[in-house]
Design brief:
Elements (H helix, E strand, L loop, with lengths): L8 E4 L6 E2 L12 E2 L1 E3 L3 E5 L3 E7 L3 E11 L2 E8 L17 E9 L9 E5 L2 E7 L14
Parallel strand pairs: 4-9
Antiparallel strand pairs: 1-9, 2-3, 5-6, 6-11, 7-8, 8-9, 10-11
Length: about 140
């Protein structure tokens, strides 16, 4: 038997976020710096019916998560939301100014209208179903 062909799913490099300025607690302006873009690690599994994509995105909530599919491009983005107590002042905000972003190019066999997303314990799970004509099916053999 031959090796199973993998669905065409390509990874794209995340885009840079525009520069922005920040201030420290004393009111002095800090040099302009770029917001840190984190690339979430992913696991990809494939069945005959679908491709499962699991992305680790700790610190991201449902409210700050965005999953978009435009044409054959699937983008996942999520801002890390860390709330500080009222009496605490942020001196350096590397974590608070970070977000996850990753883009994938989907193959023609993925049915983008039926993609499902679930976020649980910091793990985003996407189910990318295949079109019916791209699913593996058994062919009966006649005598």
């Amino acid at each position: 038997m031959g090796r199973k062909a993998m669905t065409n799913l390509k990874f794209n490099t995340p885009t840079k976020t525009p520069a922005r300025s920040e201030k420290d607690p004393t009111g002095d302006a800090q040099p302009i710096r770029r917001e840190q873009v984190l690339i979430p690690p992913v696991d990809i599994q494939e069945t005959d019916e679908a491709v499962l994509l699991m992305a680790d995105m700790p610190g991201v909530s449902r409210e700050t998560l965005k999953v978009e599919c435009a044409h054959e491009h699937l983008t996942i983005e999520g801002a890390i939301s860390v709330d500080l107590p009222e009496n605490m002042i942020s001196v350096d905000a590397d974590l608070r100014s970070s977000h996850y972003q990753r883009q994938f190019k989907l193959g023609h066999e993925i049915d983008s209208e039926k993609i499902k997303a679930e976020l649980k314990n910091g793990v985003l799970t996407l189910t990318l179903p295949k079109h019916g004509d791209h699913r593996v099916r058994q062919i009966p053999i006649s005598a």
